[in-house]
Every structure is written in C-alpha cells, then in structure tokens.
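ok, trying the design again with the full structure, not the truncated one.
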C-alpha cells in the first residue's frame, strides 16, 4: 500500500494508484495515532515537509521499502534511520531549481523597485514615483551554490551582475561555477562585497542562526537579503534590528524559522516581503517532482534500484 500523508498528488500519482493500492490524506501528517496505524501496512510513504519521519515511525512500518520526499529538504526525515532499516529515501533533487531561481530573482527585483508598496499605494489612489535601484551593475552573493543557487546564477546571466558565492562543499574550480562566472570566496568576503545576498542553504547544525547580528553588520550598508533556503539560517530578531537601523535596505523571506509563523515585527516592516514557502512550487516543478517520485516508487516496489536515492542505502539492504 502506498501512503500519501500530505498534499502531494497529480496525474502521475493517479496513474500509479490504478495498479497500486493507495491511501491519500493531505492532513494525515497531523493525526499521529491514525498515521501510525496506517503506516503499518505501507510499502511506500510519500511526504512533503510536514510529516516527521522519525525512526519510531519507520519502525512502525515493517513493510516499508521507500520514502519519497516531494521537495529537496530532508530535515523532516531521519535518513540514517531509514537506511539502517533498509528503507531507501528518494527526493526530486534539482527538479524545482528553476522555480526557486525565478522567484529568487523576482523577489530581488521587487525589493529593488519596491513593487509591493508601489502597488499598494497606487491602488490606494496615490501616485508616488519614487526612485528604485537597477539590478544591472550590482554584485550578487550566493550563499549556497547547489542546484537552486546555480539556477539563480543562470537566470542572472542576462542581468549584468557580478556573482560571488560561498559554499564549503564546492571547489573553486568546479566547472559549473566557472561556466557561470561565479567567484567562490569566504562567507565574510561575500557578505562584504554583495549588494544582494540570496540564501540557498539547508537547515543543519552548522547553518542554524548563521546569519546573526555579527554577520548582518558585515554586510555592505544598504544591501538586500533574499532567503529561499531554510528559515533557520537567519536569526530573525537580529534581522529585524538590522532592517530597523537601515543597515539592510530590505529583505524578502520565502522561508521562516517556524512555519507557518506567528504574526510579529517582520510582518509590520514596509521594507520586507514575505511569501509562504512557495519558491519551489510551480505547476511545472511539481509535475517534474511527481514523475520522479512515481518512477522511483515503481522501481523500488518491483525490486529495482532507485534512480534518485539520498543517503547511504544499498541494494543489498532491501
């Protein structure tokens, strides 16, 4: 039985369900007792980012062969525990990179030209023609040069910006970086050089609260910040202080430390744009991801190797 515990569905899953018993409940992630009862019969588990796939949940699923993550972040899945129990974890890594890159650039343009506030004022009957900033000629800093960072850089190639990047897991001579003319440097140097910083980092022990008061003070005065990775990377209280002081001109956050967030000071600031974690969610990206997940579920349930595994699972473990 294939168990879908969140809002993951589409034509690919409809086709899969024709030949495989499937249970889909977009709110099951929030019904702990029912979730544990349902998963006892599951051979495949499909989640997004709300289902907490702990070792306890994995142990409660003795028939489970595959966990399919509709997205790229894996912080809600104990991948090591899954591997230990012979369960392969797959994700559509890179399938939503273009979607994330496009929103990243869109948010930056919205900040530079203050589009949301201009829209609000114009609809209110005002006609304030305030000067904004051009993207062309600025320096853009990428914190994280994985799939979404590279996709952002690709989109920016026609805007006439200089690109600097920080990523401790990427080598400076990586052909992908050199091809996009990304100059890899230290975090401190990127923060000092960039007029716009975009965050493409996962949530890990090393990145938790990485951008704090000290890091914000290192940023170029008047710089802008766009966050599309994980909200935990930013100390939101310190960001509010940096925005109120004017050291940071504006910020656009698609991800938050707690989701959904409670309304607070960030929601009141006029130089802040907030979106509900939608960077990777487009019709096109979801179609790509769903196909990857369905293809991998079919392969694994038929005793074959997954094409998009994450972690250290081996064929002999299943």
């Amino acid at each position: 039985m294939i168990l879908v515990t969140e809002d993951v569905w589409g034509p690919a899953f409809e086709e899969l369900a024709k030949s495989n018993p499937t249970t889909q409940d977009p709110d099951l992630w929030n019904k702990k007792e029912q979730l544990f009862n349902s998963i006892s019969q599951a051979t495949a588990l499909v989640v997004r980012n709300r289902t907490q796939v702990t070792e306890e949940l994995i142990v409660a699923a003795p028939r489970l062969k595959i966990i399919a993550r509709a997205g790229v972040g894996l912080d809600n899945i104990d991948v090591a525990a899954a591997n230990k129990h012979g369960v392969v974890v797959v994700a559509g890594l890179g399938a939503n990179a273009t979607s994330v890159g496009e929103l990243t650039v869109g948010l930056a343009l919205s900040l530079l030209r203050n589009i949301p506030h201009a829209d609000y004022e114009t609809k209110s009957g005002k006609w304030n023609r305030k000067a904004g900033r051009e993207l062309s000629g600025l320096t853009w800093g990428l914190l994280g040069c994985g799939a979404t960072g590279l996709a952002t850089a690709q989109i920016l190639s026609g805007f006439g910006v200089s690109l600097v990047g920080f990523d401790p897991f990427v080598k400076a001579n990586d052909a992908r970086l050199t091809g996009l003319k990304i100059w890899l440097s230290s975090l401190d140097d990127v923060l000092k050089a960039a007029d716009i910083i975009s965050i493409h980092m996962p949530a890990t022990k090393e990145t938790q609260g990485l951008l704090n008061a000290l890091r914000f003070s290192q940023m170029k005065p008047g710089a802008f910040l766009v966050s599309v990775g994980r909200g935990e990377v930013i100390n939101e209280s310190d960001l509010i202080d940096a925005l109120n002081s004017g050291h940071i001109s504006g910020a656009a956050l698609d991800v938050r430390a707690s989701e959904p967030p409670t309304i607070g000071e960030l929601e009141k600031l006029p130089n802040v744009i907030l979106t509900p974690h939608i960077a990777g969610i487009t019709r096109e990206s979801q179609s790509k991801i769903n196909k990857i997940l369905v293809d991998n579920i079919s392969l694994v349930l038929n005793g074959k190797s997954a094409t998009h595994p994450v972690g250290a699972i081996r064929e002999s473990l299943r």
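Keeping the full-length input from now on. The longest strand covers residues 248-253.
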